[in-house]
Fold this sequence. Notes:
With 392 residues, the chain is an alpha/beta fold. It is 42% helix and 18% strand.
Amino acid sequence: MIRPDKHGYYGEFGGAFIPEMLFQNVYELQQQYEKIIFSDDFQRTYQSYLKDYVGRPTPLYEAQNLSQHYGVKVWLKREDLCHTGAHKINNAIGQVLLAKYMGKQRIIAETGAGQHGVATATACALLNMPCQIFMGEKDIERQKLNVLRMKMLGAIVTPASSGSKTLKDATNEAIRAWIQDPQHTYYVIGSVVGPHPYPDMVALFQSIISQEIKTQLQEKGYQYPNYVIACVGGGSNAIGAFYHFIHNPITQLIAVEAAGEGIHTHKTAATITLGKKGILHGSLSYLIQSDDGQIFEPHSISAGLDYPGIGPIHSFLYEQKRIQVLSATDQEALEAALELTRLEGIIPALESAHALAALKKIPFQQNHSIVINLSGRGDKDMNTYQNVFSYE
Length: 392
Ligand SMILES: *Cc1c(COP(=O)(O)O)cnc(C)c1O
């Protein structure tokens, strides 16, 4: 387990760097979130949604063919089997439920590829909350199916038409909407990023992943895994998978970043590998930026990893040498996705394929047991797979 200090710092990383107009609102959230989410009443409701709505616990599957191929024991944590197809729903339901407990009347969020937008719109439909999702105009064009899903779920999708018309512009619009009506509005953030208390809160909601892994391994007669491997965009599925193993030095924790076309090409999203310390979206962490602090436009074939920052928890764990950071290129992720599909009959999300690609990069011993967090399913990536593998 890992918690920040009361100002939201993990070592020197984190904090809450926000516009003055939001002080009151964020302060209210900081004061209330622990009291609410640790209460018996909240936990009973939340856990029952996780079980009967999301479909938890998700299986821990021993991938026999993959294991045989690599000569080690590989377990897949099947977050791809969650309702809506990825781990994001664990957090979305937690935060929308928290908003209800706080007496908020509407939900806003921003989304890039649309996965967080869909998870939030789903939680809002479930819990009867009005929902507005901000999305860059360019992303709306690129991600039509997710826009349709959000609309069908009853959300208002508002295009952000400034700047590059992508995620960061949608974030600006969402923050503007929050400032206009902070008292009634709850802003759902989709990863372990943003000002304190969001990173802590999202990590707590996603920590169910490692809690289950630990129990499931013990049921199968294993005390601890030698490795837990996960991809990192903002870092929520990774911290969820690492959380209950952080204090056990036997388990090596591997975070896999998106190298894009390669870490030396500028078309990359390998934040820790290339980044420098800076402030983005309300917290201090590693960022991909130039010497004078300009944020680079990141690149990855997987939309969910295409983010120039990373959660402050991961920057801290990296500096503490508690996590090891690897990267996988677009090409390596595509090969790993096809390999899993052919060996196990599971089509993974492109994000998750980055974690799978790490199997080729680590010098395992034969008796090692490895858990890979399969953060999502590949349905949303079929267009990309079709273009790359050129199926008719
Ligand atoms: C959004 C997403 C990610 C990246 O987000 P994290 O916060 O780093 O987990 C990874 N995998 C899938 C399937 C996603 O949808």
